[in-house]
Amino acid sequence: MGVLKRDQPAEVTEIIRAHWNRRADVFDEVDGHGLITETQRQAWGEVLSPLAGAPPQRVLDVGCGTGFLAIILAGLGHSVTAVDFAPRMLERAREKTLRENLDVDFKVGDAIALDSDDEVFDLVAARHVLWMLPNPEQGVREWLRVLKPGGRLALVEGKWADSAADRRWRRRIRSLAGALVINTTAAVVSRTGAHYPRRILKGKYRHIEARLPFFGGPSADRLSALLEANGVTDVRIEPLMDPALWSEGAQYPRYLAVGTRPPQDAS
Fold first, then answer.
1. How many CB atoms lie within 10 A of CB 37?
2. Predicted confidence (pLDDT) per residue in 30-78, tens digit
3. Burial class (CB in 10 A: 0-12, 13-18, 19+), 28
4. What is the pLDDT of residues 197-243, one digit of tens each?
5. Is domain 10-162+216-266 in CATH 3.40.50.150, yes or no?
6. Which of 24, 108, 187, 192 pairs with 124 at a CA distance of 20 to 30 A?
């Protein structure tokens, strides 16, 4: 589920890519990440089917990871394009769609600078992606760009961290000492072409992660305000607390934010 800010330093880009590539093989094993049971698949189909409309619709899954949304939407009969920054995530997603005889167009790409023409898709969907964007506003504007007028934007999100302890941890990890270690090691790896040791990579990625505007997940109110401020209309929030949707209990607020790209004659 990698994301990329196009103008960030190359060393940071490689840290992000390496982190998500390394997580790909075990990503679905983490509670709440994988599509585990047929009951879970049916529950998500009931959530997504009304959003997409009658098949076949053209759908974009942004930051698709190992294919959670793409697999469900393709199974509903839609024409799905799925984009992720981490090639290994896409490999896992392809493996799963081949096993299920589903046709999804997987592409390595940048979630906030899509390689797509304007006004192509009927639905743009993303699951737990917005919190990873260094510039959420740019992401929303880019997703609206590739939507057809009247098309829908559907974001599965949640708010899992908002404690004083978490804020103190963010301040520590942003410290000058932490930044010095990350920058030094990144430069060495960049020059030598070496691979990051797993422990060091984790620390470096967490330093980057802690600087993200929506680190810990956006609240529903904050996300609604962001969408409306960037031109999304008819924004609504639907709770996603049904245990059937998850391979774990819903231990924090989870929700679906849905909105529409305005028709051209409304602009």
1. 11
2. 767 778 889 999 999 999 999 999 999 999 999 999 999 999 999 999 9
3. middle
4. 566 566 677 777 888 899 889 999 999 999 999 999 999 999 999 98
5. yes
6. 24
Name the β-bridge partners of 169.
none
Residues in a beta bridge with 82: 61, 106
Residue 196 vs residues 34, 201, 202, 248: alpha-carbon distances, Å: 26, 5, 9, 31
Q: State phi, psi for 122 to the nearest 5 degrees.
A: -85, -30
SS (H, E, C) the chain: CCCCCCCCCHHHHHHHHHHHHHHHHHHHHCCCCCCCCHHHHHHHHHHHHHHHCCCCCEEEEECCCCCHHHHHHHHCCCEEEEEECCHHHHHHHHHHHHHCCCCEEEEECECCECCCCCCCEEEEEEECCHHHCCCHHHHHHHHHHHEEEEEEEEEEEECCCCCHHHHHHHHHHCCHHHHHHHHHHHHHHHHHCCCCCHHHHHHHHHHHHCCCCCCCCCCHHHHHHHHHHCCCEEEEEEECCCHHHCCCCCCCCEEEEEEECCCHHHC
- Report the C-alpha gap between 124 and 122 in whole angstroms: 7
Query: Token match 């890519």: residue?
Result: 17
Token pair in block for residue 32: 């709440």
> What are the tokens at 70?
């793409």
pLDDT in tens, 132-180: 888 999 999 999 999 999 999 999 999 987 644 455 445 554 554 444 4
Which tokens belong to 138? 């740019």
Q: What ranges do the domains of the chain cover?
A: 10-162+216-266
Q: Is this structure's pTM higher than 0.85?
A: no
